[in-house]
Amino acid sequence: MFSPVKTRKVYEEIVGQIKQLIIDGKLQPGDKLLSERELAEKLNVSRASVREAFSALEMMGIITIRPGEGSFVRQVSYEGMLEPLSFLLQVEISDITQVLEVRKILEVEMAALAAKRATPETLDEIRRSLDYMSEELEAGGIGDRADDAFHSALAQAADNPILVKVMSTITDLMTNSFRVSRQKLFLIDHMSDYIYDSHLRIYEAIAARDPKLARLRMRDHLLLVERNMLVLQQGSIPRLNKTPGRRALHTRASKNPS
């Protein structure tokens, strides 16, 4: 039940303190750290421990050591942080339901954040993605590219750069690794109208600045996708009740003006 208590090594304590200073914003990208001698005196530790800590931080990609100049806090890019994750997902993930579970965790709250933070410009971008989807469907397409644009616009509206990058990684995974499954979903009779309508409902909740409703509608949308994906995985064809949806009603009215 219990494991032996291990004393933390000195260099690990130094690493922890420097990482915390960066997290707290007291050390910024580009800042020069104290020299080995200065830091050893300040922390009352040996220079060897400081040197070991600096080596560990460099291996983590947190600092860069320039001979003759000193040690500096690195500029960490979101892209660099996510590249290993993207590669891992492309290679390791073979079950689309795992991706859908992650999407439910991320995108339900993302919709709520968008309802709180969306600007007029990001709201316009979401609206344009809906128009794009309608145009794609009218032209005989399945709306998958517009679907990507919609969820990307929502991530932008949530105003969190890390979330934007994570969602981009997930979109790439859905597009590259699950293209066939995704296209089968969009080709189900009436599915495109259902998806358009659920996207429109999400947009309306965000435009109304209603985080609770945005969460609910995003959850409903992702559950719709998940349920039908599972039916497809079992080798069956999902059956949807025929409904014109608001996109089809709008199209019908525009084609047959009274």
UniProtKB/TrEMBL annotation:
PROSITE patterns cross-referenced by the UniProt entry: HTH_GNTR
Keywords, comma-separated and alphabetical = DNA-binding, Transcription, Transcription regulation
Task: Give the residues annotated as coiled coil.
Answer: none
Stored InterPro entries: GntR_C, TF_FadR/GntR_C, Tscrpt_reg_HTH_GntR, WH-like_DNA-bd_sf, WH_DNA-bd_sf
Q: Which GO terms describe its molecular function?
A: DNA binding; DNA-binding transcription factor activity
Q: Name one Pfam family in it.
A: FCD
Q: Which residues form the HTH gntR-type domain?
A: 8-76
Q: What is this protein called?
A: GntR family transcriptional regulator
Question: What is the organism field in this record?
Answer: Anaerosporomusa subterranea
